[in-house]
Amino acid sequence: MSTRFIPHRDMSADEIVKCAIQARAIIQLCEAAAWSIQSGSEREIKEAADSIQFALQLAGELIVPVQEALESHEGLKGGAA
């Protein structure tokens, strides 16, 4: 089962760190793909843009349990919501 579907309270610290690492890898991949779009054909640009959008949505999903775990562990500084 993917760790992004496990409630953050049930995740180990290692699983939370893995989510952050996977999200960072996706973001770096999207940066490289966006840079390479500059020399692509119209069809290649559309395909790359669609892939980047999907990948960034996945990265966002991976960051949620990381954020929730940190917030529940440390609380928000100054009590801000």
Uncertain parts: none
Number of strands: 0
What is the number of helices? 2
- The helix/strand series, from N terminus to C terminus, equals HH
- The percentage helix is over 70%
The fraction of residues in strands falls at: under 5%
Q: Mean pLDDT, as a whole number? A: 81
Largest sheet, in brief, is: none
**What Rg, in angstroms, do the CA atoms define?**
16 Å
Overall geometry: elongated
Structural class: mainly alpha
Distance between the termini: 31 Å
The number of domains is 1
Descriptive notes:
The protein has 2 helices and no strands. The mean pLDDT is 81. It is mainly alpha-helical and 81 residues long. It has one domain. Helix 1 (13-36) runs antiparallel to helix 2. The protein is elongated, with a radius of gyration of 16 Å.
Secondary structure elements and their pairing?
Blueprint: H1 13-36, H2 42-74
Helix pairs in contact: 1-2
Task: Explain briefly what this protein structure is.
It is elongated, with a radius of gyration of 16 Å. The protein is mainly α. The chain has one domain (13-73).
Give me some keywords for this one:
single chain, 81 residues, mainly alpha, 0% strand
